[in-house]
Design brief:
The chain is mainly beta. The chain has a single domain, classed as Outer membrane protein (Lipocalin, Beta Barrel). The protein contains four helices and 13 strands. The chain has a twelve-stranded antiparallel β-barrel with strand order 1-2-3-4-5-6-8-9-10-11-12-13.
Length: 328
Amino acid sequence: MLRSMLVIFILILSIPFAANAAEQPEKGTLSIVYENDIFHSDSYYTNGFRVSWLSKPGVKSDIAMRLATYFPIFPADATVLVNYAFGQNMYTPKDITLENPPKDDRPYAGWLYGSVGLIAETGRQLDQIDFTFGMVGPASLGEETQKFVHKKIGSPEPKGWDGQLKNEPGFLVTYLRSWRSEIADTFLGMPYDITPHAGATFGNVFTYANAGATFRYGKELPLDYGSPRVQPSLPGSGYFKAEKGFSWYLFAGAEGRAVAHNIFLDGNTLEDSGRVKKRYFVGDIQSGVVLTLNNIRLSYTHVLRTQEFKTQDSHYQAFRTLSLSMQF
């Protein structure tokens, strides 16, 4: 599946409208993100999919703008954009062939959500606020999605979804700030920069504080703050400045999260459900490559995530991400 998606993304890179990107920079951005542990195992955080639309600069009237008045944190001189997103996450225990997984293993769970948010960019700083609403449990369609995909690709049928978390509406408020350092060109003649970040998320699905940094190194570093990802993760956004021609960069980053609540480990809020003892501190290390051609950005990310719960059978989980952003 991952290979076929990569082929599709590469084909999209050749479509004709890319050539005019530098002439019409004031455009909206469509981003598609796919995360999967397909090269490792169908377990724990096993799949994430997210589609988002970032408005062109200059949006003045929107429900998100009115909500943001309650959070007076955006710089007055920032370029403001509105972001809409829709996505689905799936979580499973280690062995999906068991109808009754061990009680000390991660419970089955799905998360189907939509979000609206604001991005404020100054050239040196990016502020992001997102308001997310969705459903955990059978209404998330996690069982149907995983069984359908596994049937199509010939993977083992997941048999333990009857024990998934129960239906529960979910909400999240997320705030994140990233800072761009001055771009330097002293390492083997190629530019590099470092982007630290810090933020927090509050809600009945996730509650945590996070901080970290990302290092970029490559040809003609474009103005961006990392490719979009599926939460929780290192930061990224659909925002990038389209430049004429081809550019690339390598990146590596790390983040630590202090986790107060994770419904996919702690279980349902008001009902009895599967649960495990979570780790209160979780770290991500990631590396990858970003390719930009005019108004199209393609990225690949390899992520290592430390143990999320105490009875997890490995010290980390590995998964990979493909992301495609197109401005039009």
